[in-house]
Amino acid sequence: MPRFVDRVVIHAKAGTGGHGCASVHREKFKPLGGPDGGNGGRGGSVILEVDPQVHTLLDFHFHPHLQAPNGTQGMGGHRNGANGDDLILRVPDGTVVLDNDGRILADLVGAGARFDAAAGGRGGLGNAALASRARKAPGFALLGETGAEVDLTLELKTVADVGLVGFPSAGKSSLVSVLSAAKPKIADYPFTTLVPNLGVVTTGDHSFVMADVPGLIPGAADGRGLGLEFLRHIERCAVLVHVVDCATLEPGRDPVSDIDALENELARYQPTLQDDSVLGDLADRPRAVVLNKIDVAEADELADFVTEEVSKRGWPVFKVSTLTRDGLRPLTFALWEMIVAARAARPEPVKTRAVIRPIPVDESGFTVSADLENPGGFVVRGVRPERWIRQTNFENDEAVGYLGDRLARLGVEDQLLKLGAQPGCAVTIGDMTFDWEPQTPAGVDVTMSGRGTDARIDKTDRVGAAERRQARRVRRGQVEPE
Ligand SMILES: Nc1nc2c(ncn2[C@@H]2O[C@H](COP(=O)(O)OP(=O)(O)OP(=O)(O)O)[C@@H](O)[C@H]2O)c(=O)[nH]1
Ligand SMILES: [Mg+2]
Known about the structure:
- This protein is α/β, with parallel strands linked by helices.
- The protein has helices at about 60, 125-130, 170-180, 255-270, 295-310, 330-345, 385-390, 395-410, 410-420, 460-475; strands at about 5-15, 45-50, 65, 85-90, 95-100, 105-110, 115-120, 150-155, 160-165, 195-205, 205-210, 240-245, 285-290, 315-320, 355, 365-370, 380, 425-430, 430-435.
- One of its GO terms (molecular function) is GTPase activity.
């Protein structure tokens, strides 16, 4: 059973908004007290948030389907529905959020960094909120909208300053264990370390984080050993350290060829983070070399022998023994200085403590174009018209009329007329297609049409409304003028 998971695909679904309520206030001796239907509550959103107590994406591996609660329906008596609670998913520091195409949506670094993964659906307005002077008693309410639904890939890229790379059994975990309070597993067989370990190293007044990743072998880029998979955890490191085993008895291995072999693999690794928070290709990262196990006499000799050769690459070389703790102090001080220099050379990685939101969509516009799949028909696209369709209860004529008014007011009808749309042609908005029935010749103020007027509430309006209704029928050619 896996205990550490650093890559998962999750399916997040935000809550659906509650429907608005259509209700009329009733009281003794006051049978028609006006519309009093409350609004539906908003659906809960799905939000990712960095929690420093969380170190793995394991939970999501077992529960990849995540659903925020729905909003509840509005009720009579002006009672609004309750909003669904947001579902907050706690993720480790350094979690990168990618979409299906591998694009980075957010890089969450720093406790409390947040990402709105899926927005909850809006609640529908109740008939009380829809009432206006022209529409005193709407006999309908708006539907709640469905919440957003997304598939996201979460990748953990550990946040550390120094990354250790080396062959299996070179002593990487041993080094972290002697420099920090971390207690990774150490053993004399290869691939002891299967998951990255972090340790906090203290040097004088400062401290930095060191990441021990599973060992690499030649061909790792092609998947040999544990592959390059874990190099993702050193993508953010300012400094890379080659940990070299000077006491190995394996034929064909020596410090210089070990370093060359790993450099080869590093060069083949493609980092996925390309923004300010990373420091370019792994190959360009400052390096240090740790020649380990000098408590073994032959290893000490070999280390002396290769120091000059290795130094030629311009990298500082340190001879250490994690067993006797020789050479550790100069190593940590030098690493700290390299970190400071690397940080100074590049702007401090942006700590995305702020909420990262998806790019806001321009809601104001809409487009009307000929429907290519349906000759003679038209397609209307736009955030608002499409939302209005979702909010409409098509079983309620009044609600459909209200939709028509909204579309006309936005200018959709005018645009259709301009493009030569004929009455009865198919118009598609969102996932609805209907026969177009132009209700407002351009220039007529639809707000005065009196839709939703309840004559019992406002008797003076009665005649006017009937007249206007008749006029509309005449315009549509449904009846002969009287
Ligand atoms: N003699 C000696 N042995 C050491 C030293 N450092 C580590 N070892 C031994 O080397 C073996 C491997 O050490 P690890 O720290 O597990 O090596 P690693 O690089 O983390 O190995 P993987 O996790 O498999 O990649 C263990 O048996 C350690 O006791 C050292 O300085 N001197
Ligand atoms: Mg190890």
